[in-house]
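Shipment paperwork, digital attachment
Item: protein structure file
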Amino acid sequence: QVQLVESGGGLVQAGGSLRLSCAASRSLLSINEMGWYHQAPGKQRELVASITSGGSRNYGDSVMGRFTISRDVSKNMVYLQMNGLKPEDTAVYYCKAHLETIVGGINYWGQGTQVTVSP
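Attachment content:
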């Protein structure tokens, strides 16, 4: 199992920056992939950024060039640096851990943190 705790959300003006943090309860090297997702009201949850245990990164099209995912393996922490925020980035941001097991893939989610970007 993996417990995830997000922090760092808040209210920011358009063009501003925020950094989200996700604390994992086990070594990041034992987790196949960590990711950030967001979900706006009435919309589906979608990928923002992910990073594999090997360090490969992937970004959603809407955040490419503005957001950066990083990690500190020594602290079991994953971060999402968000620059150039836009009102359309307003959403609840969730941290996800994906594990591949002998019975298949398992996803664990944090409780989410609200990000609100004002015009």
